[in-house]
Specification:
Strand content: 15-25%
Shape: globular
Bound molecules: nicotinamide-adenine-dinucleotide
Distance between the termini: 36 Å
Low-confidence stretches: none
CATH architecture: 3-Layer(aba) Sandwich
Strand order of the largest sheet: 3-2-1-4-5-6-7
Radius of gyration: 17 Å
Number of domains: 1
Mean pLDDT: 98
Number of strands: 7
Number of helices: 8
CATH class: Alpha Beta
Largest sheet: 7 strands, parallel
Length: 247
């Protein structure tokens, strides 16, 4: 097992990429802290991990709220004694042209997709410094690297995550904490549920591999970054995108 004895927080662990990663981390021996807003679904993911023979808890968390994130780290340390891995995955999507985006909508998206990632690192890093080691994986996107029409707020947030990851990585490298980002292409999760089948087919055609990604394919990349197999990897933005950005 590749995460035996490790304690891992996964934000947005209730659906999609976060849920897949929580289940995979559980199978790989980690004690998993599933963080999210939906208690019923969170407890369901915890029960699935336990059925697989793993150990997990759910902590109700809105990553945009500083008190919630601080509480998440405290409960993790109180329950499992330490923190080794943070997957700052929680995020929301939104479409909209800049001239039609309200300041409120802009702030709401950034509060989750960028500030939420910052808050998770802010409180996780002191816990990791106590151990002298840790691995943080931030969830960015291909849209942190390339543009696409009508996703300016989302692209701004994900671009922010990409470069915050680099700066944080070089800041904490000599304290044993590795910080990387995973940058998915379009992945078939509830985030894409609002798209009709034509829109999904169009997105599929943008990936040279010819399909959308599966949540497990991102979870596998996150597992690599979380585990000691990536011990010389920090500050990386790992594109897992079916060739989308290679074109
Ligand atoms: N699906 C894609 O095509 C795609 C592509 C690139 C990047 N991503 C990124 O992957 C991550 C996971 O997305 P997904 O596709 O699994 O979507 P999803 O909608 O299935 O899951 C998102 C998760 O984040 C949680 N969440 C949202 N706001 C939150 C908040 N304020 N506090 C706590 N939890 C919150 C949701 O409840 C859910 O569990 C996101 O950061 C997203 O931007 C997704």
């Amino acid at each position: 097992m590749r995460l035996n004895g490790k304690v891992a927080i996964i934000t947005g662990g209730t659906f999609g990429i976060g849920e897949s990663t929580a289940l995979l981390f559980g199978r790989e021996g980690a004690k998993v802290v599933v963080a999210g807003r939906n208690m019923e679904k969170g407890e369901y993911v915890v029960s699935q991990i336990k059925e697989q023979g793993g150990d997990a808890i759910f902590v109700k968390t809105d990553v945009a709220k500083e008190d919630d994130v601080q509480n998440l780290i405290s409960v993790t340390e109180d329950t499992f004694g330490k923190l080794d891995i943070l997957f700052a995955n929680a995020g929301v999507g939104a479409m909209g042209d800049i001239h039609e985006t309200s300041l409120e909508d802009w702030n709401t998206l950034l509060s989750v997709d960028l500030t939420g990632v910052f808050l998770c690192s802010k409180f996780a890093i002191p816990a990791m410094m106590k151990n002298g080691s840790g691995s943080i994986i931030n969830c960015a996107s291909i849209l942190g690297h390339v543009g696409q029409p009508s996703v300016s707020a989302y692209a701004a947030a994900k671009g922010g995550v990409v470069n915050m990851t680099r700066s944080a990585a070089v800041t904490y490298a000599n304290r044993g904490i590795r910080i990387n980002a995973v940058c998915p292409g379009y992945i078939d999760t509830p985030m894409l549920d609002q798209l009709d089948s034509d829109a999904k087919r169009h997105l599929e055609s943008l990936h040279p591999i010819g399909r959308l990604g599966r949540p497990e394919e991102i979870a596998n990349a996150v597992l690599f970054l979380a585990s000691d197999e990536s011990s010389f990897v920090t500050g990386a933005n790992l594109l897992v995108d079916g060739g989308y950005t290679a074109q």
